Amino acid sequence: MRTYGQYCPLARASEILASRWTPLVIRNLMFGADTFSAIASGVPQMSRSMLVTRLDELERAGVISAVPKPRGRGRRYLLTEAGRDLATVVTALSEWGERWVEIGPAHTDPGFALWAWCRVQLDRAALPTGRVVTTGRRCGSSTEGASHPPPGVRSRRPRVAQVHGAAREDPLLDQL
């Protein structure tokens, strides 16, 4: 890890948190992603080797802990107390981005949007136990024949700012 060589809390924190992809990895952990594959799904353009590097750096810095899975291979990645304490930082950065940064169609990734929705807003406890198949249509086309959730299935509303600034509520706080 590169260092600024300064006796300054902001410089030291930036050495850990200001690397490319790191805030997004932390966001994914706050959304409940706790396996390598789940974290990687939330950063589809990040290389696997870079994700390995970032997870190792965060573990060495005490932001996450990596524990072996109870069954099978691999590890679970969990936020430590220091990592959970970053919720206000990530939320503030998201709110700043919502206010000051332009987000347009070039920044749209439908795969990420679906991943984030399933991680943050979907109330999994309300889903039916059996397999359910749904269909949908592209925006602008007829909704005739589109499926709707079964009765009783609902989306959870997060509490401050969605991932790319669509809502004013914060899903990160719900995860802590």
Tell me the layout of helices and strands.
Elements: H1 9-17, H2 22-30, H3 36-41, H4 48-60, E1 64-68, E2 75-79, H5 81-84, H6 87-100, H7 110-121, H8 171-175
Antiparallel strand pairs: 1-2
CATH homology superfamily: Winged helix-like DNA-binding domain superfamily/Winged helix DNA-binding domain
Estimate the strand proportion.
5-15%
Give the termini distance in whole angstroms.
Answer: 28 Å
Number of domains: 1
Q: How would a crystallographer describe the biggest sheet? A: 2 strands, antiparallel
Element pattern in H and E: HHHHEEHHHH
Features of the shown structure:
single chain, 176 residues, mainly alpha, Arc Repressor Mutant, subunit A, 8 helices, 41% helix, 6% strand, globular, disordered C terminus
Can you describe this structure?
It is a single chain. This protein is mainly alpha-helical and 176 residues long. The protein has a single domain (9-175), classed as Arc Repressor Mutant, subunit A (Orthogonal Bundle), CATH 1.10.10. The chain has eight helices and two strands. The chain has helices at residues 9-17, 22-30, 36-41, 48-60, 81-84, 87-100, 110-121, 171-175, and strands at residues 64-68, 75-79. A two-stranded antiparallel ribbon has the order 1-2. The longest helix is centred in the middle third of the chain and has 14 residues, at 87-100.
Give a brief rundown of this model.
This protein is mainly α and 176 residues long.
